[in-house]
Amino acid sequence: MPTPHVVTEDTTDASAGPVGRVRPFYRAVGNEERVFAAAFTEQLPVLLKGPTGCGKTRFVEAMAHDLGRPLITVACHDDLTTADLVGRFLLRAGETEWVDGPLTRAVREGAICYLDEVVEARQDTTVVLHPLADHRRTLPIERLGETLVAGPEFCLVVSYNPGYQSVLKDLKDSTRQRMVAIEFDYPEADLEASIVQHESGADARSATDLVRLAQAIRRLEVPGLREVSSTRVLVAAARLAKAGLSLREAAEAAVIAPLTDDLALGASLRRLLDLYLADQPHG
């Protein structure tokens, strides 16, 4: 039976706040940190909207650190069921035992529960979020005949990419309107270059050239190009260059090739390498 991909990150000691961990690297673009902190204080759920690889997940990790809360992340997918989130009975050593799902664990533990790419889950699954996302802040567990009431330290956070997913899927209005929305986009060029340089350890020139390439790709309006180059893939390219590939080789492998399997479109994208990348031997 399919199970959700769940990552639990303990960022706290119950009494001492963040425990000796370095804050996950995140540089604010606007007021997103203040909006998130205010929503957490007022016990409001948060919706993060933005393109793939623009920093939404890293932002949540940084905020969990700042707020001193554990973070439980669920990668949503088509087969995700309500039981995957809430829990189920399992047979262990000949006995039936209830096992909490990640959403239930987050409510019990006062954690931040982050549902990444929430619209990938079926709409009948996301309905379970509704009583948690409004004034009730409750999670009914029908199989146990129990209703959990979320404490003040629990926070529900969901994310999705409206530009890509609205073609086939979208977040239900009844879910969306329960949440405080924070919009993300790729950073301005100078900031994005500094992020790429910091995350990869590459030199400033390589980072700047990669960002210029990405901006050119993002400006394209061509059929068949469903995604554009994210900050995340620029970091990957910069790391390849730092490891010894030429910047062109690194960008072709990490930036261009993953975008499309169409030969003509791929050739057009590769021509941008000649325009925007200096042939540096390494980062």
TrEMBL record:
Annotated ranges, domain ATPase dynein-related AAA: 45-179
Keyword Chloroplast listed: no
Membrane-traversing stretches: none
InterPro entries xref list: ATPase_dyneun-rel_AAA (IPR011704), CbbQ/NirQ/NorQ/GpvN (IPR050764), CbbQ_C (IPR013615), P-loop_NTPase (IPR027417)
Pfam family, one: CbbQ_C
GO molecular function, one term: ATP hydrolysis activity
Domain CbbQ/NirQ/NorQ C-terminal: start-end pairs: 192-274
Keywords: ATP-binding, Nucleotide-binding
Family to which the UniProt record says this protein belongs: Belongs to the CbbQ/NirQ/NorQ/GpvN family.
Stated name of the protein: CbbQ/NirQ/NorQ/GpvN family protein
Organism: Mycolicibacterium septicum DSM 44393
